[in-house]
Amino acid sequence: MGVAQGSHIAELNALSPGRSGGGDLGVPVDHCRRGASAAEFTLFQKELKGNVFGGANPRADIPKLLDLYRNGLLKLDELVTTTYKLEDVNQGYQDMLDGKNIRGLILHDI
């Protein structure tokens, strides 16, 4: 099995593992810069897999997450470290850069 992450060299090494049928390879699509030949995949039974959104299904998962939140089973409010008004957005960024804020929430009037 090969794993490629973030560097062109890792991708080259991962796309060329030693044995045929060597398992699956996960490469973020936006990082895949090497044009692998179709023969390499078919002759050696290799697979190239990727995903978007971490493999989630937003159409099904978001309503489930909303229900969990509404029923008090998904604690999102407790994750917020600081809240800011929209006009204080620059202070929120500065606090984040200074390490004072981990998960800030910007509140704005609708």
Q: What are the secondary-structure elements, in order, as H or E?
A: EHEHHEHE
Kindly, what is the distance between the CA atoms of the first and last residues, rounded to a whole number of angstroms? 50 Å
Counting DSSP H or I runs of 4 or more residues, the number of helices is 4
User: Quick one: overall form?
Assistant: elongated
Question: How would you state the average pLDDT, rounded?
Answer: 75
- How helix-rich are the residues, as a percent range? 25-40%
Q: β content, as a range?
A: 5-15%
What class would the helix/strand composition place it in? alpha/beta
The side-by-side strand order for the widest beta sheet comes to 1-2
The description of the largest β-sheet is: 2 strands, parallel
- The beta-strand count equals 4
Rounded to the nearest angstrom, the radius of gyration is: 22 Å
- Uncertain runs are 1-5, 7-12
Question: Would you spell out the secondary-structure blueprint of this structure?
Answer:
Elements: E1 2-3, H1 8-15, E2 25-26, H2 38-43, H3 58-70, E3 82-85, H4 89-97, E4 104-107
Parallel strand pairs: 1-2, 3-4
What would you say about this model in short?
The protein contains four helices and four strands.
